[in-house]
Amino acid sequence: MAKEFKRYLVTSALPYANGPVHIGHLAGVYIPSDIYTRYLRLRHRDVISVCGSDEHGVPITIKARKEGVTPQQIVDRYHELIKRSFERLGMSFDIYSRTSSPTHAVTASDFFRKLYDEGKFIEKTSMQYYDEEAQTFLADRYIVGTCPKCGNDRAYGDQCEKCGSTLSPDELIEPHSAVSGSIPVKRETKHWYLPLNQYETFLREWILDGHKEWKSNVYGQCKSWLDGGLQPRAVSRDLDWGIPVPVEGAEGKVLYVWFDAPIGYISATKDLTPEWEKYWKSEDTKMVHFIGKDNIVFHCIVFPSMLRAHGGYILPENVPANEFLNLEGEKISTSRNWAVWLHEYLDEFPGKEDVLRYVLCANAPETKDNDFTWKDFQARNNNELVAVLGNFVNRALVLTQKYYGGIVPACGQLTDYDREALSEVAAVKEALETNIENYRFRAALQEAMNIARIGNKYLADTEPWKVIKSDPERVKTILYVALQITANTAIAIEPFMPFSAAKLRGMLAVEGFDWERLGASDLIAAGHRIGTPSLLFEKIEDDVIQRQLDKLAATKAANAAAEAAQHVEPQKEEISFDDFQKMDIRVSTILTAEKVAKTKKLLHLTVDTGIDKRDIVSGIAEHFTPEELVGRQVLVLVNLAPRELKGIVSRGMILMAEDASGKLRLLGPDEATSCGAIVG
User: Fold this and answer.
1) Secondary structure in 3-state letters for 458-492
2) For the segment 157-171, what is each residue's pLDDT rounded down to a tens digit?
3) How much is the pTM?
4) Regarding the domain delimited by 577-679, which CATH topology (the fold level of the hierarchy) does it fall under?
5) CA distance 98 to 113
6) What CATH code is assigned to 120-233?
7) Which residue blocks in 15-120 are alpha helix, DSSP H?
8) Which pairs count as long-range contacts for 599-602, CB under 8 Å and 24+ apart, including other chains?
9) Fewer C-beta neighbours within 10 Å, C or N terminus of the chain?
């Protein structure tokens, strides 16, 4: 028998406040969370939804150091950006808090202190890297060296971002401090650890025996961790940004961010309501964590162990983690700017909040990694939202306006086909609820859209625009039925597309409908006057999509250039001054330039070297047009042995450099110089 709950506590993973939110975050966590919460509210459940910015940890201090600002300035900037972006997308959190709040500082400190006083931690002394120049212990991210697995010379002490390997600082080859650049030394330091191994039995019983209904990816990852054996995990670290460890003699130490952040759910609830304990400590509360797969271990193993150690708190009933969303076939990367940022999307696609919500839900990575492409985004908008949902709604409302001046006609005798269509709509309710309550939001959205599909087919089959000529009374019934299906659509899409649902209610001129009425065939009474019809969605043209693809192409080119810039060719073999003296380099002027027939790369140039006028064949046609070369002063190696290319004897070489992007740059004097001037 399913457990009955009086209230719901929905948490969404705290976004890290060192950058904006992107579509991967939305598809993995925030869209599913919002759908679930909105659904529960529509069913009049007692539910609160909490979220907030995660504002401590090393990456924030690194970003602050790079920008020459304080960590507080970084988190203030991104907290506001994230909060505003969520509001614009229609995220319906009851509170969006932050872990730099005074309430959180007290809550996290008290939580740690209770476990400390009860002897729930173990103290361990270990040798860790220390930067003598900066006089600070180095977090793993502050240690840089060569990856032992792929040879990347910019790997971090916790991870190589090139090959994806998890590392420890001791594995790095030639480690150095990212703070000062100096070579760190090992020093002794003391920290507190949560002995996760002591909670293995409890976790096995609670998860492996008690929650076999969890998603396979979540259950499987938990089992893998437990089968591998849990180890004590540090809850403090040497850092000057975070919540100070509330223990005498712990100066310069803060709570580790993984310990600090989940407590943010509790502190956010405290700021929301004085009845916070009802949601955190009552067994008749259902707590659900919405997270991405990279946070499974923290929400299924670490945080429950913390709550268990503390005592008095409930544990999550479910942790429906999603997999990752890729972008155009590549892993989303904030460091490489390979992402679709929410705030930029909202600026560039005004009024299309629901299009993004729809696409990210329809393509959600629920069971495996999925891929977002701009072409798919366009296709789903044009072929589904416009051609199915928008088309049905528009036809039903426009025909009502055209034939009856916007007055809902009276329903006559229903045919078997009318009853069949209405029963199909009614059947959607159960399937929709089952899917949402089991966190299958893609399937749920499909069910919601099916109502519009039923409506489209109904109008296509009944053809009221034709029947009006022969049987106008029958058309009244057809449009009455069509408007009932339209009203049902408004209910069904609301958790997924709240802006469109509100717009549709406005066009129907109704306040709203109770969820329990979904499937009813009398939602709008005969004689009711509907509002003015307008398009629910609009087509997205190719040029709009091309701009986004061009934007990504520019990002890819910039990344390639940055990557290339960091890999300078090593110095060639040493030569003597006499060897250099043998080279005769002269300032020259290009007199003529033309492409060499039947070649892609070759240009035939005539240059004035000051010694003579000569022919040079150069493979630069893909970088320069003949027109832009004529008149340019360049440097020419004039005593290079002649070489015949495509029937032309080339006597010399024009000197140039290749930049990080692969583009060739001509070398020449800054000011006009006499041809023949010797370089050297």
Assistant:
1) HHHHHCHHHHHHHCHHHHHHHHHHHHHHHHHHHHH
2) 878 877 767 778 888
3) 0.84
4) OB fold (Dihydrolipoamide Acetyltransferase, E2P) (2.40.50)
5) 21
6) 2.170.220.10
7) 23-25, 31-42, 58-67, 71-89, 102-117
8) 599/646, 602/645, 602/646
9) N
